[in-house]
């Protein structure tokens, strides 16, 4: 069974930002767009806060 932990789910300008933890892959983020596409980077973060901050910056830069 997978041990995924979801820390944050935020709706921002029609997109959804999700910050989650998986064993072996640390903290990550993904963005679900208004059209249903899933985007993000394969980078690892060592805290939920770092992944959230980067996800918010990523969303800001993608506009």
Task: List strands and helices in order, with pairings.
Layout: E1 5-12, E2 15-22, E3 26-32, E4 38-39, H1 48-62
Antiparallel strand pairs: 1-2, 2-3, 3-4
Please explain how this structure is put together.
This protein is an alpha+beta fold. It has one domain (5-62). Helices cover 24% and strands 40% of the residues. The protein contains one helix and four strands. It has one helix spanning 48-62; strands spanning 5-12, 15-22, 26-32, 38-39. The protein has a four-stranded antiparallel β-sheet, with helices on one face. A hairpin with a 5-residue loop joins β3 (26-32) and β4. The longest helix is centred in the C-terminal third of the chain and has 15 residues, at 48-62. It is globular.
What is this structure, in a nutshell?
With 63 residues, the chain is of the alpha+beta class. The chain has one helix spanning 48-62, and strands spanning 5-12, 15-22, 26-32, 38-39.
Q: What class do helices, strands and sheet pairing give?
A: alpha+beta
Biggest sheet descriptor: 4 strands, antiparallel
Q: What topology, given as strand order, has the largest sheet?
A: 1-2-3-4
Element-level helix/strand string = EEEEH
Number of helices: 1
Please state the average pLDDT score.
Answer: 91
Q: Globular, elongated, flat, extended or rod-shaped: what is the shape?
A: globular
Poorly predicted regions: none
Structural descriptors:
63 residues; alpha+beta; four-stranded antiparallel beta sheet; 24% helix; 40% strand; globular
């Amino acid at each position: 069974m997978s041990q995924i932990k979801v820390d944050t789910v935020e709706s921002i300008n029609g997109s959804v930002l999700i910050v989650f933890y998986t064993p072996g892959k640390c903290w990550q983020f993904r963005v679900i767009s208004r059209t249903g596409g899933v985007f993000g980077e394969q980078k690892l973060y060592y805290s939920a806060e770092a992944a959230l901050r980067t996800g918010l910056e990523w969303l800001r830069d993608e506009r």
